[in-house]
Amino acid sequence: MTGELSPIDKAKFVAAKKATDFVEDGMRVGLGTGSTAAWLVRCLGEMVREDGLRIKGVPTSTRTAELAREVGIEVISLDAAKWLDVTIDGADEFDGELNLIKGGGGALLQEKIVATASDQMVVIADIGKEVETLGAFPLPVEVVPFGWQTSQALIEETLVGMDVLGRSSTLRMNGDAPFITDEGNHILDLHLGRIGNPRQLAMVLNQIPGVVENGLFIDICDAVVIGYGDGRVEVRDINAGTVEEATLDFVETDNLFTDLAD
Ligand code: 5RP
C-alpha cells in the first residue's frame, strides 16, 4: 500500500486498533462487516501472525470471512462457536444510549444474530457516526424477495402511525439489479429523517410479513470506540458509565495492508 491514509480512514483505523484491547487469547470473536470492521480484522490478523494471539473468529458476511482467512484468523461458524466472548462491528449511526442503525453494507441480519449471541458488543466508528437522534441515515430493512413490493407497501403504511419524519423507501440496487444479501434477500432503505421511538419502530417492523430483520440495534451495544483523524480515541462503556480517552500512534506497517491493492 502506498500513500497516506485519509483522516477518516485513520479515524477508523485507530478505533479498530483500540478495540483490540477487548480481545484476549482464547476468545471467540464476532467479526463485523464494513470498512471499519475490516481494519479490525486486519489488526487482529496482525496480532495472530506477529504475537501468536489465538482466537476463533465468527464473521458476519462472506466478505469478512474471506478477509479474516486472508490475514490468518481461524474462521468458525456461529453454530460451532455457540456463544461468543465479544463481537466488534461498525455502525452507520449511534446515539447517546448506544442504539444503532446498521446495515449500510447489507449484512445486518448476520450482524444482529452474531452480536446478540455475544457477551459483549463493541462498536467501532469515526466520530461522524454519532447522532443526537437516529434516522438521518436510511434505515435498512431486509425483506424476502417474494412479494417484496407488498412488504414495501405494508412498511410505508405502518410508518404512518410512527414517530418519523419521512416515509419513503427504496429498493437497494447493485448496478442494474437488486442488491442480494448473503441470505438471498433484498434490502429496503427507509428514508425516515428522524426516528422518534427506535425501540417501538424496531418491534413493529419485524411484525410485517416479508420482513426478515431491520437495522435498528436496540440495547445490544455495550461500548463504542470512537476514532478521530488525529489519532485520538474515546471508549464509552454504557454499562460501567465510563469514558476513557487515549491517543494512538499511527504507523502504516505493510503487514496491515496485505489485502489492499496499491
Ligand atoms: C454493514 C454495517 C457496517 O458496520 C456499517 O455500514 C458501517 O460501515 P463502515 O464501517 O464502512 O462505515 O452495518 O452491514
UniProtKB/TrEMBL annotation:
Catalyzed chemical reaction(s): aldehydo-D-ribose 5-phosphate = D-ribulose 5-phosphate
Enzymatic class: isomerase
Any Pfam family: Rib_5-P_isom_A
Entry superkingdom: Bacteria
Function: Catalyzes the reversible conversion of ribose-5-phosphate to ribulose 5-phosphate.
Protein name per Swiss-Prot or TrEMBL: Ribose-5-phosphate isomerase A
InterPro entries hit by this protein: NagB/RpiA_transferase-like (IPR037171), Ribose5P_isomerase_typA_subgr (IPR020672), Ribose5P_isomerase_type_A (IPR004788)
Subunit note: Homodimer.
Family the entry assigns: Belongs to the ribose 5-phosphate isomerase family.
Protein's GO biological process: D-ribose metabolic process; pentose-phosphate shunt, non-oxidative branch
Keyword presence, Isomerase: yes
Functional pathway: Carbohydrate degradation; pentose phosphate pathway; D-ribose 5-phosphate from D-ribulose 5-phosphate (non-oxidative stage): step 1/1
Keyword Isomerase belongs to the record: yes
EC number, as in UniProt: 5.3.1.6
Annotated GO CC locations: cytosol
Single GO molecular function: ribose-5-phosphate isomerase activity
Keywords (A to Z) from UniProt: Isomerase
